[in-house]
Amino acid sequence: MGEVGINPALWSHPPEELSDGRLRPATPLQTHLRDVERRMRDLGTLDDSLVVAIAGLHDIGKLTTWFQQYIRDEIPPGNKTHHSHIGGAVVNYALSALDADLDDQLAGTVAVLKHHGALPDMQGGAGGFAQQFGDPHGGNAETYDAIDRKLDNIDSNPDARAVAESLINRATAGEGSWAECKEQINAREELPKLAKHASHVVSYVNDNEGDFYAHLVDTWTTLTLADTTSAAHIDLEDLSCGTLNPDAVQRHIRGFDAATDAREAELNEIRDTAREIALRRVGSFLDAKTQVANITLPTGFGKTLTSTQVGLTLADRKATRTGQPSRVVYALPFTSIIDQTADELASVFPDAGALDLAVHHYLADVSPDEESFETDALAERDRMLIRDSWRQQFTLTTFVQLFESLAGPRKSQGLKLPSLRNAVVILDEPQALPPEWMNLVSRLCRVLTDRYNVHVISMTATQPKLFELFEHTLDPFTLVEADDSAFSTSSPMSFIDSHPRVRYTIHPSADSTTTDSPLSPENAAATVMEGIESPTLAICNTVSSSRALATHASEYVSAETLNEHFAEWVVEHDESEFDVDGFVASLDTDRPLVAHLTTRHRPFDRLQLISVAKRLCKMNAPLLFVSTQLIEAGVDVSFDRLYRDFAPVPSIVQAAGRCNRSFGAERRDVCIWKLESAKDGQPPSEVIYSTLAFGDPLAGTETALDEYREGIHVAETAMISDVVDRYYSAYHTSSGTTTTSLPSLVDEAKCSTLGAKHIINQQSSIDVLVPRSGTEVEKITQLATQSDVNKQAVYEARGMQSITVSIPAYPSNQDELNRLRTRLLPVDEDIGLYVIPELSTYDAFLGLRAPDSTVDSRVIG
Questions:
Q1: β-bridge partners, 279
Q2: Using CA atoms, how far apart are residues 548 and 521, in angstroms rounded to an integer?
Q3: Is the pTM of this model over 0.85?
């Protein structure tokens, strides 16, 4: 039988009222299926026969009278209206009729079965593919009974049967028929057999140098993005990426102020040379056997601009070579530093449009999780999903968004993956990855390079040997390194040797050769505040310890803290256009100033107070800036003195990059000390790194420091090279990071199990909108006044990222969160979204915290 004409009475999606009042007509099913086929070709690189079968049959279950009634609002959704299972069974038949390879049969069938859900484990376990579909006459009988009823329903309707016959004929290139398809599915043999033998298929593919997990995820995400964008009527042109000119970086640099002395001129020349070396090697990297590379430069030598220009140049050449778009995904470890990097990129690309540059992290992700039942409602849900699918030329995001989207993704996460095809991925500060994830990240990088043709660049001053010590990728290509022989005169390493910025000093409290106890917050505050004359940074390991240190330090100043003065200024002025210069001019910089920042402060406050700190540092004002690790990486600010609570070597080196960053005339000291708990418990360093981390990085730090120390000091060149290398070699070996079992979940295609793993190990979090003014109080309070959860309110709230504070929920802080909730109004309690209904609930100095429960609450927070 040949193809039948479009039947306008059999819909895939209902009519839709548009924002301008016009009515978009219903979409015929056959039109939708052809459109999905076209999109899958455009978005992916799957074999064409696989595309025709998957796209042409994935929604065949919508031919039932029950679905047609549901889509017309005549009956509610339910088991009769679900269409994924019957679609998967029909696709399984079609691929078998085409005599497709078993891996294609398995990937295509599962992709359709789960195109409205999440991928299951392919090997064993509760909820695995075999458990869901492998027992048609026992545990899965109800599923197969439902499929049979839907086949009968389609068969009983001549119009539907004619369309089904036509669809199967096309999908099987004339090798199959509706009658044979129905008969085979009714026999309950082929799909159950595929489910029961799925693990063998996975093993066979992998044993023959394939990667079934990558094939399955690619097939599934290509289908879901094509299907979702078609349903939302998003034009393919709107899914194309923009164009950013790599030369804009060079033009931006030419606009910098001229060097003020010979040392700064030499430093600028080295930065330019480092970037030029990396750019000259782009072609060689593109031709190399390996598709992973390193950029290894100390802090202050222009890594961000170098990697941006290199990434865009590489993407441009890849696009020319392949004829396919090439995007850049720039991933950072923390949401707290994304805004600063975004500001720098915005200054480089001031005219960037919506398809050119985007920022995406969890606070920017307003996409709700999938409904518990299948639905094809269009509304705002699908549009939000599309917005987060990384179709821009340059996406700035986090490690969480990138790697959790690759590791057993939910549907909303998986929509990003087709955009990674032929892309360039830049990992900025990869040493911040949780050690227990590094082996998995290396394995996922192989998925990126081998399946998606991605080139991955690891960029940091302290390379964690992500590609060298882990087995999943080839050794990295060197784009540029600190002691690179391509530097004709001074290299970054030789420059630092001649002009050391810092010297690391081990405080008695952190000295493994002494018996001194950790330093109390009171004594630490006295140490930093005594005779303070210049900008000083103190980085703590926990929010509570930073609050304790900041509070005790604030007792040394007679006036209000910098935070409190800032909060008053914002209320009195237009908070949307903060005047940094005007605010700094209003300060009395002849007296000591104390500022405090953690992730409990609003992103707006963090961004602006860091800008203020930059001005005060240039003025050499007497400032103590107390912070957590949020200021440790990616923040272009230079303090005169630095104190770092004891931490792994990479964190100490990254922190030191905030001290004497511009190579002042004199070498400065970075003091490594160990603070005691503000609550008489474990020292914060042990709470964070010994209790929560993988292995014992603190022991590795002590070993590396002791090996290269000279008395109580460690030279900067030794620290950024020998100590870092010694630390990683020792730590990876002793901790077993290179042999963790997480990569086996990828090898075995245990998608559901993998999806339950998280980079940030926390149970949940609450997100709180914190107003800056009375006007904002009124605006955000209205979002919480609905008697039921209002999706539009949630959408608007998620858009207010600059005033959203996120607090992770750990077992240890449940009491604090419960007390805090008593002062909040919910927008959506199920997703932990709240607003503060009054300004007084937020402490400008300490940030968002629970109401006082003890006399010492201001100190211990």
A1: none
A2: 6
A3: yes
